[in-house]
Amino acid sequence: MKSRGKTVHSKEQLKSKGVPACNQKQTLHRLQLNFQKFQNPKTKSLSKSNILNPHIPSLSTTLHLSVSHTLDLHTVRNMAIPSPSYSLATKEPASGSTTYCRKQKSLGLLCSNFLSLYNRDGVETVGLDDAASRLGVERRRIYDIVNVLESVGVLVRKAKNTYYWKGLGAIPKALEELKEEGLRNNDESVDCKSGKVWEDDEDERFSNSSASFQEKADPDSMHKSLGLFKSENRKEKSLGLLTKNFLKLFLCTPSDTLSLEDAAKILLGDARNPSLTRTKVRRLYDIANVLSSMNFIEKIHHPETRKPAFRWLGMRSQNQSQSQTDSKTGLVHPESKKRAFGTDLTNTNISFKRNKMVLDVGVDQSVKLGVSHSGSDRLDLKDPTGLVDGESKEVKKSQDWESLASTHRPQYHNQALRDLFVHYMDAWSSWYSEVAEMDPIEAV
DNA sequence: GAGTCCCGCCATGGG
DNA sequence: CCCATGGCGGGACTC
């Protein structure tokens, strides 16, 4: 018997088959979102998951129960629907398309938009309701973003519904603390600094991904050795905690790649329960979406097994031998072929294959983040730790990017793509000119 | 078919 | 009791 979830098996739950009082506030907005889907013939989710789902009251019932008992279908259909979520990033005119697209709803994209909304001068606090309404999503999604951002120090809880905005500049310190904590605990057991567990040939590690960790390191001992936070009660199972633990895996080990499967096993505690693993994996995807949208990590695949894995980008700028590692491991970076956790800004109206050479190097950074770089919290997210050894490195890198961007303009035959690219180039140019004028230290 | 991850139900805990 | 929070897993979507 499930203790939670959607199975209806109690008086209380039956009663709540209407609309729970505590959820009524969100119901109206949910209806608006549903009708966005409803209006789009492409989507199947309303009919299948929202109407046929036995756990969700039928549409008419929901309307009757929750929308002041007065709204009919016609009224709701004609309600002023807020501008489509994510219009910030898609650059779609708010009034343009009501097309529902899964990609446009991704957590990564939401995170980008969240950052672009708040990463600016003068922002001191973030209200969850405000964020939800401005981003056009339900509060539930904001919690997901906020939990992850809190783990990396961007936000600090102030009161209910309110967070202090610490900004991207707080990330290096937060990561350092996580790293110290992980290494401190690590001293007692496995010597991670020497890389006993991780330094093995990546190929070998990936060659048997299904058993890689059990053979090379017991997930339980790995869990202890990194001082990962225990997840025993509800609070301690939070997404934030999982994020911290996930980050520690990268921060405290010499390897910068980790398979999804291994991550789930290490972070899990009990690696023997498949359904628990599946749940955990879902959460890892959630976290990875947010972290990848901030360019902390990227998604990769084993070339043969195609098993998913993550690669840490945070320290990459310090690690000049990274490219050699790539050739050594033979890992594929499918970013150019496949959407990366929904962080792709493209919407489905434009089938947009990225031009890896330019977008990956520079333009993609600013656009993908959608961050306005005019604030005081400027930070190169390619190096979230901020541990850049040469102060001019940043500027030099920017110059490299600029020259690359200027010399490798792709020739798009599609007008839409051309326009899009021009837009990205403009964004990049303006960002670059700002950075170039900045104090190099401030830039870090 | 496996991988990905959106969505929202509903349990929990604080006020 | 109300409300904020967020764990959790169904199932749609994507490759």
TrEMBL record:
Q: What is stated as this protein's family in its record?
A: Belongs to the E2F/DP family.
Q: From which organism does this entry originate? A: Lactuca saligna (Willowleaf lettuce)
Positions of transmembrane segments = none
Q: Give a Gene Ontology cellular component term annotated to this protein.
A: RNA polymerase II transcription regulator complex
The biased composition feature labelled Polar residues covers 316-328
Q: Region labeled Disordered — which residues?
A: 201-221, 316-335
The name of this protein is E2F/DP family winged-helix DNA-binding domain-containing protein
User: What GO molecular function annotations does the UniProt record carry, in alphabetical order?
Assistant: DNA-binding transcription factor activity, RNA polymerase II-specific; RNA polymerase II cis-regulatory region sequence-specific DNA binding
**Keyword rRNA-binding found:** no
Chief location of this protein?
A: nucleus
